[in-house]
Amino acid sequence: MKRIKLDLLLEIELGHLRAGFVSFGDIVKNLLETNPDFNVRYGESMKAGDLLPDDEVISIFEREIDKVALGGMTNINFIDGFCRSPQQIAFAADNGYLVAGDQVFIIKVDEDVCLERFMHRCKNQPARIDAELPTFHRRFRDYHKTLPELRGMFMESGCRVIEVDGNPDIAADVFPVIQKAVHKNLLEACRSVHYEPLTMAA
Q1: Cis upstream peptide for 83 (omega within 30°)
Q2: Which helix (H) or strand (E) holds 77?
Q3: What percent of the chain clears pLDDT 90, i.e. is strictly above it?
Q4: From the centroid of its chain, how far is CA 75?
Q5: What's the pTM?
Q6: How far apart are CA 65 and CA 146, in angstroms?
Q7: Which SS3 state, helix, strand or coil, does residue 82 take?
Q8: Measuring CA to CA, which of 41, 163, 187, 202 is 20 to 30 A from 11?
Q9: Closest residue by Cα to residue 84 from 161, 149, 156
Q10: Which of 77, 69, 73, 39 is nearest to 56 (CA)?
Q11: Which alpha helices (H) appear in 22-168, and where do they start and end?
Q12: Which of 188, 189, 171, 195 is nearest to 4 (CA)?
């Protein structure tokens, strides 16, 4: 998400693009650090590897997407970390947050590569509540267990599911694949509502 925001910064500043961003991991991390009630309710369970309950996730999402709307109408929104369960996908599809043609990126990474990146994150962010090896292994197993159902539901909703090999270098190899797909989608979106042509390189 950070790379996408930086990549699109010029187009946003020039007024060629009105984009909204919701990065769910950052939002939850901030709530754990700044909201004592939230930390009491969910801190220990998240440390153990549990995800937030669906009703709490949906409530947070609605609140954050409302903030995006208050900033003015957008012609594209980027959501990172939502939807992560069948219930969340069903909610998003039923309420118009997930529609045919939306791009959904599934980044597939081998366990050893994920673990290496996780350990690097723990070293640089030791205070993170989920910086625990058992938490990593539980979430990795749960992700692979639920992925087939989530992929199927996204496809049934008419989304364009794009599976990306996340094992190579993120900056040099992984992000350019996502970037190319995002730019193509942006060009289509901007043409459909008669915005100024984007100057981004494809």
Answers
A1: yes
A2: strand 76-80
A3: 60
A4: 18
A5: 0.84
A6: 25
A7: coil
A8: 163
A9: 149
A10: 39
A11: 24-34, 36-47, 54-70, 86-94, 111-124, 133-156
A12: 171
